Amino acid sequence: MNKKILLEYKMSEQVTFPDPDPITLERPSIKKYIGYLKFFGPGAIVASITIGQGQLILGPQIGAWAGYTLLWLITLNIGSYIIAYVSCRFTLISGIGVMDLFSVKTKHGWMNWLFIVIMIIFIPIFTASIVTSLGQTLQWIFGRGHYLLWGILFCIFAAFLALVGRYKLLEYSQAFFVAVLAIGALITLISLKPDLIKIIPHFFTIWDAPSDFPSWVYNDYPSVTKTPISLYMLGYLGTLTITIITLIGYTGWLKVKKWGIFKNEDNPEEFSQQLFKYFKRDGKINYLPSDGKIKPLLKPIAVDLFIAFIIVSLVSAAYMIVGAILLADNHILPEDTRLVQNQLIIFTYLANWLKPLFQISVFFALFGTVYSGFEAATRMLYETVGNLSPRIRKMPYKRFMFYLLVYLLVTGIPLAIMMYYGLSVLLMLSLTLMFVGVIGVILYGIGVVSITQKVLPKQYALGRIGIAISIIGIILLLIPFIYLL
């Protein structure tokens, strides 16, 4: 019989933490830190979703009309990673999902219901924008067919892969998609030899934001100016953050990865629900050892989030800076009818023969976004709805995914058709990202810090420094709202 965490309520009502991965106990060395790369998994999905949609479209566009002035939004994004760490830390220690706790610790589970409503409203919009951008890319590559048909067919194909594929395939494919676009953008940026002395201060000048669009944007791209600058700012921050979709989905992936308290469990989901039942019975967590050493068990999630943050930040900065240099000088912007084609200059600046590489890279990035996005949205809702509906909790995960994907396609495709007839993709995408990537994340962050301090035993709760860092993370995400005033 495999070694397992022993839950012995009849005898001691305690669990024992598993031994951490041996590499986390080694002395500091280059070999050790290279070995840490094996922990990069869920972070690849986060990075793929972030880079695939937001950075390809909003990043270069904002760089083109705002220059370097909004680079500080990338810095603020660290707030969402702090929240993600606190959230994952809670689950890795307690074995209980954060949304499970919200379902019983908030009145009538209102936090769960709020996130469900946000998802029901905004995720079809995300699906529609992906149908549009992916379809335009494929039409551009092949030079024939209607982009809506291309987008719909490949979104259905992505849904099929999500249903039949395994989690490992998702991880590896997303790492590949991220690498292709990231390397292309960074090579172009390096070749431009930007003035770093001029650029770096803008990562910290949070008081600096453009008051209006340049005149050439009004003349050449009037549709872009219909969306307020403050909304673009919040939408772009929403592309950078770990959204509520991936924040909550992450706690599900922890079980799949068998990190922390789940390490030796054959059925992590069943184990998590068993611990949650004991919490509901006793009204508190009293099954953890009093002297458990948890830092090594938290190392995988810290490494995974750190790598994801570095990748997202570097690529986001590269796309915005390249947009400020290349797109602005040529008065080019991504727009509703040409969401990705106008960024071609980012690759062909080096050589015209790179056009096919850019087209293929964009396809992989957008396809990777919809593929991983379907999994992330399903995982998020499965975690959120589970303890509001016992029937859904008992439902096989893949069946739940099938029902959700049908809903997303049935609602997202008509919205994509509406976008074809004039509904602004950029406006709807910005609104979606503001709610999913900023407002929802702030509410989740406040909630997860609160339950960490109230529910975890004192020895496992955040210390003063941890609380201070968590509060700073939430405040960072609130800063752009000042520009709405």
Describe this structure as you would to a colleague:
69% of the residues lie in helices and 0% in strands. Mean pLDDT is 84; it is low at 1-12. It contains 20 helices and no strands. It is mainly alpha-helical and 485 residues long. The protein has helices at 30-35, 42-66, 72-76, 78-94, 98-105, 110-142, 147-164, 167-192, 196-199, 215-220, 229-240, 244-257, 268-282, 295-329, 345-348, 355-385, 390-394, 397-420, 425-455, 464-478. It has a single domain, classed as Amino acid/polyamine transporter I, CATH 1.20.1740.
Summed up:
This protein is mostly helical and 485 residues long.
Order of H and E elements = HHHHHHHHHHHHHHHHHHHH
Radius of gyration: 22 Å
Counted up, domains total: 1
Mean pLDDT: 84
Contiguous low-pLDDT stretches (5 residues minimum) are: 1-12
Question: How many strand elements?
Answer: 0
Count of helical regions: 20
Oligomer status: single chain
CATH topology term = Amino acid/polyamine transporter I
The proportion of residues in beta strands is: under 5%
Outline, from the CA principal axes? globular
Core attributes:
485 residues; mainly alpha; Amino acid/polyamine transporter I; 69% helix
How are the SSEs placed, and which strands pair?
Layout: H1 30-35, H2 42-66, H3 72-76, H4 78-94, H5 98-105, H6 110-142, H7 147-164, H8 167-192, H9 196-199, H10 215-220, H11 229-240, H12 244-257, H13 268-282, H14 295-329, H15 345-348, H16 355-385, H17 390-394, H18 397-420, H19 425-455, H20 464-478
